[in-house]
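As described in the Methods, two query proteins were run sequentially through the folding procedure within a single session, without resetting any intermediate state between them. The first query and its resulting structure tokens are shown here.
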Amino acid sequence: MARISTYSIDTLDSNDKLHGTDQNGNTRNFKVGPTVGNPGGDNSATLVNYITEASTNALAFKFHNANFGGLGSRQPGTISVTGTDEQTDFSSITTLKVSKFPYAASLQTDPKTAVNIITYLVGERIKFSDIQNPNIFGVFNLESFVQDGDTDFYDMGLQHISSNGQFTAGNNSSTTPDIYLLEVFGSDLHYDHTQSSSSSTWSITHNLNKYPSVVIRTGSGSKVHAAITHNSKNALTITFAEAQTGSAHLN
């Protein structure tokens, strides 16, 4: 073999391969970029997926249904639901059973938990997204994170906000469980309400999970003041002396 320095410099492409040795001492070619298939499965072990899945800095979890990936019991590094469907709509989720160990950490000899950081995120808006396709996502308010007895699993209470797609658990045969990243989603949340029908009372459900400030404009564009009642962190009522149309910006 020629000296490495004699080879030309190239940039990485998803179709490139790296030559090396696996953990069993066997010589292998390793794909650089994404391939068809589900992350976490044997048919998608590319360098890009491996870095994402193996990073202990990432809050990444493999999704299981009640079949537990065919392994007989709830597994470290997973989030799971009670049903057995291969796919579960994000919009139907109100509770997830969450391992205290993220997926990458669960593979370590001395795994570190993510309990403190997830507990800190209670009250925040979070997003789960498929590591292979970020257009598959679910946005939720994280309402609670409570340990299930003395187990290594926690019940995560969620309020669905918006989403596109489903959690995929697969059928443990032709499809395998997907892995999802948990991230904080948005730091300056706002909501714009349009009141088309004239009314002295505007009832607004904003789902911002906070008590926002409110700027009110009438149909003519004039900024006005009115009585504001925060019914909860996700809803408020604006009351006028007379019926009005217009808009309200909540921040």
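Immediately afterward, the second query was submitted; its sequence and tokens are:
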Amino acid sequence: MMLAALSPLVTAGIVLCAVPILAGVAQPYVIWLKMEILRATNHLTRWRDRAQYRYKDAGTFAWMFAWYKMRLDPMFDDLPQLLKLAPTPRVAIDLGCGFGVAANVLLEWFPEMQVTGLDPNPFRVKRANASFAARGTALVAAAPDFEVPGLPDQVDTIFCLDMIHYLSAADLATTLTRLRNRLTPGGFLFLRSPVPPPADATPWRRWRGSNVPHPRSVEQIAEIVTASGFKLIESRPTTGNPALQWFIATA
């Protein structure tokens, strides 16, 4: 009745605005239903589906964040190749874990792995804990003072993904040194960080690069990593995004 009383142009405008909003609201439940059907029929065979299902009790926002992260971040294309450089991870730290998306993917790739995630945001930590279930724990902690009760004394793998640009030079050096001291001999550090984008980067990437709190070049990061007691064995740009650089180092 109300729509009939409006002009066709106004009615069309309301419909055009309402459809994407309703679709956005419905999407989490559609994906949830798909996951339930796959679980009930024992068809959670793809690692993305299994990692996604870990968020069934973590809330809608974390569920959707994980869904998009696993599909849009080329990290998950790069990591399988990078991880071949190291022994199979069994006890890992994920510093700056956020909602635990990368950690949950790793848990699906490595069924024997246990993870401890660290993040300063209690909201994210709560959701990460719900997703890890019996395979790990998430703790509220912020670098460089991340050494809180419950953190393993020794681990064989450490992940620092897209977080060191929030740390000052002194805090980064302290953080890496403390991480190095918890890494077993022969253990590995996988670090990804924003770096200055190339001159031919898109305006969006140049803008993002100009808004990094503590920008550092590839050479500067490599120097800090080695000065903290690590041996740098690989450095390469992220697939499709040269403004994100990988650093792989060993104890």
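Residues 74-96+143-250 form a domain with the Rossmann fold fold (CATH 3.40.50.150). We note this only descriptively and draw no conclusion about the first query from it.
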